[in-house]
């Protein structure tokens, strides 16, 4: 039962979610001194989340390459020659085997991605089986399949899909420089179908495509000012793949990524903000700052869709160093067992790294319980 005081604090918390962010305000956040920005982001983060918990997702490409879209960043577009091996839709059983492996490695959400403009009707029954099978394993499900019609979104919702990922990618102004085969409005329509079907929205973008600071602000404004903010906001750093038009794009400064994460945290206080593609190229120190800025979700496992990601042992070592523990899933069922499995994995990793020359915050009993909601900010 929810207590009156927690209902009151929920109401206060919801009142703090704004959908009227302006460009000036957001640019002012970006221009704050770094320490002030991170301090504000931490205050917001601690109002809604345990700062020492992280959500772990694993990605799988269930249909690879030969995509008809021309997204300039993407190794899977059929418009560019990136040498990628094309693969048709994976068999359901193979997908479930990969999900089981991801679960055993500690992931609580399994994200399945397909290089489609939109899912073909003939493949929808297999997609439904994948969602049902992954849920039966006790994992949360996420799919990213391109544009969806309203009826396709309803079919996915009916199958039990938890999240649908569909990124706005960049600001409305910069978008046309990156993709010409579908519009910003098309993307917003898909997000509306997902929301209307009752599926949680995962939507974010990419840094490092040649966009300006105004465009980064514009992306975050487009996300935060949606009628309901996305539950999950992936921020990708461009993975520069040879053969794509953006192969020589300028490298993203790690501290600029941290700033963007902090601004996203302040603007979307209740959303999970995920450090998605691009962690492979960043130091542990920058990743630690990103967690301080309010990043509370990552992709775990040595591959994203087609490009590399830090392997899970390195990630667990980093999380151990920082005293950050994986979050348990909230699916109905035996959640406690799931939480214990994940935490055991971290403990095992910690023990195997027992000689490592760093301070072990978990062993020192520094992992805290979820804090009470704060009234400040
Ligand atoms: N085809 C579907 C779509 O575009 O919606 C789903 C898969 S697509 C690969 C999912 C997202 O991955 C894209 O929206 C983009 O934000 C991200 N992405 C793709 N290639 C990337 C790259 N090279 N670097 C960073 N992010 C990338
Ligand atoms: C998202 O925002 N990032 C993920 C997920 N959503 C599907 C994809 C990243 C892809 C990076 C390039 C690749 O591995 O092909
Ligand atoms: Fe296709 Fe998605 Fe890649 Fe665009 S991002 S080319 S839609 S797979």
From TrEMBL:
Keyword RNA-binding: no
Enzyme class: transferase
Pathways involved: Cofactor biosynthesis; biotin biosynthesis; biotin from 7,8-diaminononanoate: step 2/2
Domain Radical SAM core, residue spans: 52-276
Keyword list, A-Z: 2Fe-2S, 4Fe-4S, Biotin biosynthesis, Iron, Iron-sulfur, Metal-binding, S-adenosyl-L-methionine, Transferase
The organism of origin for this protein: invertebrate metagenome
Gene3D superfamilies registered for this protein in UniProt: Aldolase class I
PANTHER family: BIOTIN SYNTHASE (PTHR22976), BIOTIN SYNTHASE, MITOCHONDRIAL (PTHR22976:SF2)
Cofactor(s) recorded in Swiss-Prot or TrEMBL: [4Fe-4S] cluster; [2Fe-2S] cluster
One GO-annotated biological process of the protein: biotin biosynthetic process
EC code(s) of this entry: 2.8.1.6
Protein name (record): biotin synthase
Pfam families according to UniProt: BATS, Radical_SAM
An MF annotation (GO) of this entry: metal ion binding
Family: Belongs to the radical SAM superfamily. Biotin synthase family.
